[in-house]
Amino acid sequence: MAVRVAYFDFTCCEGCQIEMTNFGDAAFLELLNHVEVVEFREAMSEKTTEPIDIAFIEGSFSRESDRKRLEEIRERASIVIAYGACAATGGINALKNHQGDYKKAVYGKDSEMPHLDSMCARGVDAAIKVDYKIHGCPMDKNEFVRVVSHLLHGKEPVIPDYPVCVECKQNETVCRYQLGDHCLGQVARAGCGAPCPADGIPCEACRGFVSNPNEEALEKVLIENGGLSAERAKYKSRMFAANHRSDAVKE
Amino acid sequence: MACGTCNCNSPEIENLFMPKEALITETKWMTKDTKHFVLKWADGSKVSHQPGQIVEASLFGFGEIPLGFATSPTQENSFELVIRQVGRVSTALCKLEAGDTMLIRAPLGKGFPLDELRGEKVMIIAGGLGIVPTRSLINYITDRRDEFKSFTLFYGARNPSELLFKEDLVKWRSSKDVHYFETVDGCCEEDNWKGNTGVITTLFKQAEVTPDTKVIICGPPIMYRFVMMELYKCNVPHENVYVDLERRMKCGVGKCGHCQINDKYVCIDGPVFKYSELDSKEEAL
Amino acid sequence: MSVKFIKETDFNDFVGKMMEARTVVGPVAKKTKFVFGELESVDQLRLDYDVTILPPKKLFFPPRQDLLKFHGQKGTSCICPQPKVLFGVHYYDIKAIDQTDFLFNENNADQNYLANREATTIIGTTIQNVSPRAFFGSVGKNVNPKGHDGFLTRINGGWVFETLTSKGRDLLDFGKFIDADDAQKAEAAKVNTEEKTKSPEKIKAEGDVVAQKVRKSFSEDELWEEFAKDCFSCGSCNIVCPTCYCFDVQDNWNVDQHSGARTRSWDGCLKADFAECSLGQGACENFRETKGSRFRHRIMRKAVYSNEKLGGPACVGCGRCSLSCTADIADPVNVINRIVEG
Ligand code: SF4
Ligand code: SF4
Ligand code: FES
Fold first, then answer.
1. CB proximity list for A195: less than 8 A, separation 6 or greater
2. Which of A169, B118, B199, C156 has the greatest number of CB atoms lying within 10 Å of its CB?
3. Per the domain annotation, does B60 fall within a domain?
4. Over 80: is that where the pLDDT of C262 sits?
5. Per the CB < 8 Å rule, is C326 touching A177?
């Protein structure tokens, strides 16, 4: 019997979902032979309340009112996977956790409207138990296929927990630091295959940090080798890893 | 065989990583998460390992794990493995049943130094899953008991329901071939346990251990330190102590580096080491 | 076997002819650095390189290599060597290849490496430019490279080509080689002796003294933690090292969910979970839990542990680890000198 999967989205740009409908290639279509998609907001309209084998959740948990919906999903699903940076770590949404005035900056005079009320942006694991995370902004389709493939066989997926440097070196990419630039690869979780440094762009740690990031050394290296000012070096990794940093806002 | 995916004509080159098929003839859950397998080589070959040697057991798609042979080569036509469901590979392997095939690379590593043990007083101290690989030696000794001066066995498990090889235990308890002592860390009323409770070192009070005894230890890392303290009190020198460290392997053939403890490779220099030859106990235990 | 000479003006023609007949891998530029890559045109070849990002081990032991392919539970081997000429290897890298040749062969011969190695013709070359962190002149001085098939030395007006095996001699067919005269041979010998003095960094003690003192420092935990304070556990120092060869093995299915491959990929002992294993019931044990203990293991492996079987330190002094460490703590010269000087 095909494995029943469903997709749900919370606070995010829905880019990961689009990314998925964009797959359109043989790999993804072949995967569809093994799964039955019962709910997918971007691509189909029917919705179910039936049990689900795997629930994929996209987007961060940033409004208390979402908690109930998340709990319902958890109830129905045997496996919950947070996919994409927002769901996995709060992602870029968590930038606002450190800014008091973001509403005014973003919405101007409408900023006091009640539906714009939100709390800190966090990964969905702040509300419910998450079994696995597929990191990245957007998530990596190869990793997605691999994780699903492992789950189809009842095998716990292998999620890398080492820095992006490993992949850069294996690709023989010239290190950003050797080109007078900076990078966050030393603390960023690998698994993406390090495409950004290969294209000449520093890693922004869109997959969040590894489990044991050396934040202190990062700050030092960003200043001494990366040429960043002390101020920039200190906050540089907030873009995607706000909730992984030791100064993450908890509530 | 050519790889089949390109046009290479390479003649048959032996691949170190190619497993052999073994047929599972019997299985039994020994505890709620630990399963016992009886296997024989699918090509009909006889068993050829030494007690204490290891296997890499696998299923394609899931990967490989190192395990110790649970049987002595004195049992020629089949061998046994015990697998506890702890990770990806072991969970998949535990789903196999009689009639299924398991993939195996074996025998790997160096086993117990039988030559150094023959004619001596031998003592085995096994904690938890440590009873599995040491059983290959226990069976060997009991099958050839007259080659050894005396044989003492300590076995400790967390609680009575986690004791493995229950049929063997019954035999050992009444056997004249082995001085058998057992203990459990703790138990509850339903266990109806009449034996010793307490950690394995409490058994030292019951047995006499002389300095000339050859001692083999296998168990969880934490156990070694406490057992070594007891052996020190009994004046057993480090040269007489052997440890079985099999839990840290990946490739099993001395290449991948994962099992390296200082300058030793557990998979080819061990898994059995003379305690006196491990220079840094810090990395080893 | 024989010592030949080829004029500078005939050299490109030689390389071109060789490329027509063989797959040639040599040093080529990548941005401001160099890598070993398959030559597509003669002018890509940069024999004036200082050091490549990855060592040539990648040709025999690729970063990702399928060991077995499988269909269901039936496996097939995929050892499939492709003949190549590895052209323009510095002597420290040849010494490193000698080590991996030995290590993949000892105890259990691993044909996944050895078959690729066997199919490769290795031609060494003089170091024309020196990497800023190299110290090849001060390590393993008594160990000479031996696994290559020929060696090219640049002298005035051309190249002296010493062939060492029949594989090396076969390349003579591609160029206008003549016998080298005594003056040319002497000049080549001088160039190759002098190049060993050109490395900018220096380990300040002989290998056996280093081995002894570094081993003794094993229990100085504080020192090792201090060395490793800024370590990211990124494993770059392992991955770029020509004498590191640890790997991980993972199985993956293809999209058909039936076939797949058992693949090995480079691993590194500096990575946080390298020595971790699960003990069951959720517990796991990491035998090198701290950054310091992992950092120490690499230095021990390079300077102490394998000296006996390799005849000298495992480190060949290429300086790649020093260049690749963004925290700039990996340099064996700094670590070893600090220990030997007390
Ligand atoms: S390259 Fe430097 S930071 Fe990275 S693991 Fe090695 S020593 Fe640590
Ligand atoms: S330890 Fe560093 S200098 Fe030595 S061989 Fe390895 S990469 Fe080169
Ligand atoms: S398990 Fe790979 S080297 Fe020992």
1. none
2. A169
3. yes
4. yes
5. yes
B275 with B157, same domain?
yes
Tell me the CATH number for domain A3-152: 3.40.50.700
Quick: pLDDT tens for C9-40.
Answer: 999 999 999 999 999 999 999 999 999 999 99
Q: Are B193 and B235 in the same domain? A: yes
Ligand 1 centre and the CA of C325: distance in Å?
5
CATH code, domain carrying B131:
3.40.50.80
pLDDT of residue A47: 63
Query: B91 with B176, same domain?
Result: no
Give the β-pairing of B179-184 and B150-157.
parallel
What's the predicted TM-score (pTM) here?
Answer: 0.92
Helix, strand, or coil here: B30?
Answer: coil
Say if B88 is an interface residue toward chain A (CB within 8 Å): yes
Query: Which residues, at least 6 apart from B164, have a Cβ–Cβ distance to it below 8 Å?
Result: B30, B31, B34, B36, B82, B129, B131, B132, B157
The residue to mutate among C243, C269, C270, having the most atoms of ligand 2 within 8 angstroms of its beta carbon, is C243
Q: Which residues of B touch A155 (CB under 8 A)?
A: 61-62, 88, 91-92
Asked if B214 contacts B244 with a C-beta cutoff of 8 angstroms, the reply is: no
Rounded alpha-carbon distances, angstroms, from residue C188 to A75, B158, C184, C255: 77, 71, 6, 56
Q: What is the pLDDT of residues C129-151, one digit of tens each?
A: 999 999 999 999 889 999 999 99
| A34 close contact with C: CB closer than 8 A | yes
Residues of C in contact with B61 (CB under 8 A): 70, 251-253, 260
Range of the domain at B168: 114-284
Separation of CA C317 from chain center: 10
CA atoms of A235 and A249, how far apart (whole Å): 14
**B174 and B259 assigned to the same domain:** yes
Q: Can you tell me the ipTM of this complex?
A: 0.92
**pLDDT tens digits along A161-207:** 999 999 999 999 999 999 999 999 999 999 999 999 999 999 999 99
Q: How far is CA C199 from the centre of its chain?
A: 17
